[in-house]
Amino acid sequence: MTLEGWVPDVGQYLTLAEVVEFAFDYRGNTTIVKADGTEVVGYIFNRNTYGPEPYLEYFEESGEGPFTLRYSELANVKFTGKDTAAGNSWRAWLERKEREKAEKATAAESVRDPDPHRG
Amino acid sequence: MSVPLSQMWTVATYVLRQKLAGRKRYPFVLMLEPLFRCNLACAGCGKIQYPAQILKKNLSVEKCLAAVEECGAPMVSIPGGEPLMYPDIDRLVAELVKRKKYVYLCTNAILLKEKLDLFTPSKYLSFSVHMDGLRDDHDEAVCRDGVYDQAVPAIREAVARGFRVTTNSTLFDGASPLRMREFFDEMMSLGVEGMMISPGYSYSKAPDQEHFLLEARTHELFSRMLSKPKKRWRFNQSPLFLRFLMGKHDFECTPWGNPTYNMFGWQRPCYLLQEGYARTFQELMDTTPWENYGKKSGNEKCRDCMVHCGYEATAVDYTFSSVKGFVETVGVTLTGKL
């Protein structure tokens, strides 16, 4: 299950702080929508809600950073970047290994009995 | 046991100094992650899943050294990512050795042979080579064929050139105790100084979520694997930690024992869990709600964790905190009976 592509609907049932928690756990870039309407693409790596002014920290897509943004300056976070923890490359490797095993088994079978339909 | 006496002495005197100073919480090993880039993508690893701009970044040597000073631990482990892909790894290691820190450079050894010339053998430097088993088991764990056959000659070369070399093995459900015993024989025959073993942690970001060991299964696996240990096997870790893995000791986690520093800051609360970052080591120690972690806390993320970075510190502290612990450690070390 991945949040990739999710555009949260911040409101009565989903708070901004909850969205930031999801974004903090997300291993991909997000589009950070600021309260003034501007947007920045970056990776949110930290948030701090203990102090009087909760804030998040991020690196921009260019690698610049870290930058700090107060929750009061934030409107939303969109999960626009690829989820790097979705496990796609691992699944591809597993599928390849399974294919190789099946091919080896078929080859071994045909060596044992080169023509199974022979009378 | 294969930890050199000078290293044991350094750790023992360090622990005693902390005790005399009345420090309740103190670090043993700094886990220093100068980068997250890796040339492998192992099934059980949750450390490298980041967007490209993060994977391209490196901590500066200066920031690494500042973290080392700030933390004050006598040992520094450099995991990652793959540390041999860090462009300043030679300078970083040289600076740490100059500061008399015991360095464990954790590597998959793919680049080890070609990078060996960058380093000088020292009692302070160990290459800790990631080896999860014999050829088929290891290559399956790292999700690439041929890695075992790259690592073995690199280990031989490093040993031949006088470097300290250890292995580190992470075990998952499905590991065969018999094959692991063969693996121990094989590693010792390569001439490594010692081996480190640990169950894997169930990283929520690791691709394979099905093969992490639960506590009871960990006890069973390690008991079978380490029963009647051969005299030639040497482990570069606390024997009491091994007894804990076998279910012969009940320890609580020491999450501050192996603090982690990387480009995001000081990771809360430990090397395995990623619940936020502090800007300074002191802030990490002072403001992390430590009571929320470890088995007794009831935190489900800690329930089945028996990983060395949480429990080896407990074992070492136990050794130097009580006569009983010290006598037990000496006894196991001298007899070799776990």
Q: How would you portray this structure in words?
A:
Chain A is 29% helix and 25% strand. Chain A is built from two helices and five strands, in the order H-E-E-E-E-E-H. Chain A has helices spanning 16-25, 88-112, and strands at 30-34, 39-48, 55-60, 67-70, 74-78. Chain A has a five-stranded antiparallel sheet with strand order 4-3-2-1-5, with helices on one face. By secondary structure, chain A is α+β, with helices and mostly antiparallel strands. Chain B is an alpha/beta fold and 338 residues long. In chain B, helix 3 runs parallel beside helix 4 (89-98) and helix 10 crosses helix 12. Chain B is globular, with a radius of gyration of 19 Å. Chain B has helices at 5-20, 52-55, 61-71, 89-98, 112-115, 135-141, 147-160, 177-189, 215-226, 239-245, 281-287, 308-321, 323-335; strands at residues 29-32, 75-78, 102-107, 125-130, 164-171, 194-199, 260-262, 265-269, 274-278. The A-B interface holds A 24, 27-29, 43, 45-48, 50, 57, 59-63, 66, 81-82, 84-85, 87, 89-91, 93, 97 and B 41, 43, 46, 49-51, 53-54, 56-57, 140, 143-144, 205, 207-208, 264-265, 276-277, 287.
Quick overview of this protein structure:
The complex is a heterodimer of chains A (119) and B (338). Chain A is built from two helices and five strands.
Topology:
The complex is a heterodimer of chains A (119) and B (338).
Chain A: H1 16-25, E1 30-34, E2 39-48, E3 55-60, E4 67-70, E5 74-78, H2 88-112
Antiparallel strand pairs in A: 1-2, 1-5, 2-3, 3-4
Chain B: H1 5-20, E1 29-32, H2 52-55, H3 61-71, E2 75-78, H4 89-98, E3 102-107, H5 112-115, E4 125-130, H6 135-141, H7 147-160, E5 164-171, H8 177-189, E6 194-199, H9 215-226, H10 239-245, E7 260-262, E8 265-269, E9 274-278, H11 281-287, H12 308-321, H13 323-335
Parallel strand pairs in B: 1-2, 1-7, 2-3, 3-4, 4-5, 5-6
Antiparallel strand pairs in B: 7-8, 8-9
Short descriptors:
heterodimer, A: 119 residues, alpha+beta, 5 strands, elongated, B: 338 residues, alpha/beta, 13 helices, 9 strands, globular
